[in-house]
Each structure stands twice: as structure tokens, then as C-alpha cells.
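Aim 2, interim progress: modelling of the adenosine monophosphate-bound target.
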Amino acid sequence: MKVLVPVKRVIDYNVKVRVRPDGTGVDLANVKMSMNPFDEIAIEEALRLREAGKAEEVIAVSVGVQQCQTILRIAMAMGADRSILIQAADDPHDDIEPLAVAKLLKAVADDEQPGLVLMGKQAIDNDMNATGQMLAALMSRPQATFASAIEVDGERATVTREVDGGLQVVRIELPAIVTVDLRMNEPRYPSLPNIQRAKRKRMDVKTPGDYGVDASPRLDILKTVEPEARQAGVIVGSVDELISKLKDEAEVI
Ligand code: AMP
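Predicted structure of the complex, ligand included:
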């Protein structure tokens, strides 16, 4: 079985995001970019499936600007066998929307016939939480979202999902799409020899046109603003004062 893992290049989660002064989006100039953390978890889980003999090949795929090849090299340094870059934009500020990404991933899946598409539950830049669900719909395949564990057994997978108030265990028929949550595993760091080895692994470079997909945006983003600054707090002198403030000023009790 092949496992296809879509990986997105996003602003590194440690970076304090700045909004562009004209409100047209987030400033990406000189900002550290990394693999979406949930996608690292998906790569790690795909590698574990291969190491357990449940998968033969792990293929990473990224849609975006040419610089996405850096995160594909990281995916291959972690252990992915090969990768596909779909170059769909020249300007890093052009985010490819979930529907276009899902259509492209479907085209890749039609070519590659993976038994499993393992992907992040959401990209931390736009927080859409939509691509996996859209892909499952386009492929007419079962999906399990927010997975914290997955076991593959022949033609089926048992997936533990994180839901409000606990864990839900579902069984799905493969091929399927599984989106992963934070607690699934701890991704490995690529070793130096593996970083070197990854440079020689295969990376196919494609365009949306190669798959007959129109990746142009359908959403109009009207504006992007910084979150409101937090108001300064007050130090109260006693529990009684706290209770009276909560009652009379905040009116929450
Ligand atoms: P989203 O629906 O944008 O929150 O993203 C959910 C997941 O879809 C991500 O964790 C990735 O696995 C995948 N994904 C989204 N956008 C891309 C992209 N441009 N390239 C590759 N994978 C993507």
C-alpha cells in the first residue's frame, strides 16, 4: 500500500505573525517557514506504518510556491520515499484554497492509487480544517478526522478520533482519508546523513495545468487585522473585592 501525505509550507509556529500594513494579509517577508506541524505528524505516522510492514511507500506532496521543495526535502529526510511538488503560485502570499488543493490531491491520488491519504487536520496558517474533508468528498472515499491513533489491518483501518468528552473509535474501509490530530505521535528529527540522502530522492515537479485543475482563488479576503490587544488587568486586594467585581462590574456571576 502507498501512503500519500500532503504537506503544507506555513509560517513556523514559533514566529509572531505580523499583518501587512495595508491589511491584505500576513507579512511573509523574511519570515521563517516550516512544514505544517500536523503534517509532520502525518509523515511520522506514515513512516511508522511503513516500518511496521503495513505500507510500502510514503509519498509527500505539496501545493504552492517553488520554495515548498524545502519542506518536501525535510519530509524525505524524515524518511518519505519520494515527493511531488505542484507549483501553483509564484508569490508566497498567494494561498491555494482548500478546494483547489483537494482537486489537485484527488488528481495525484488518481495517478498514485494510495491505500491511505494521511494528512493534517488543519493548516496553522489559515485554520481552514477543510482540505481532508473536501478530498474525501471528491474521491467518494471514507474519512476519519481528528485521529489520535490508526491501525491498519488489511483492507480496513481502525481510527481513534478525539471528540468532545473523549475518544471515538471508528472502522473504515481503505482506501480512505485520515486527518491527524496533535496527540498521534511525536515526529522524528531528520538526521544529518538522512538530510544528505534526501537530496538524491525523487521529486517530481508539476503544475495544476498538468492535472487539468484551475487553482485560481474563489474566496475574496476582504481584510486581515491584528487581534485586539489585551486590556491591562487589575490586582484585587481580597476575595471579597474579586467577587464584587465579578458580580457588579463584569456581571458574570
Ligand atoms: P486546511 O484545510 O487548509 O486547514 O489544511 C488541512 C490539511 O490539508 C493540511 O494539514 C495539509 O495536510 C493539507 N493541505 C492544505 N493545503 C495544502 C497545500 N497547499 N499543500 C499540501 N497540503 C495541503
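The pocket of adenosine monophosphate is lined by residues 6-8, 36, 38-39, 62-64, 96, 98, 101, 119-120, 122-123, 126, 128-132 (CB under 6 Å). Residues 37-51 form the longest helix (15 residues).
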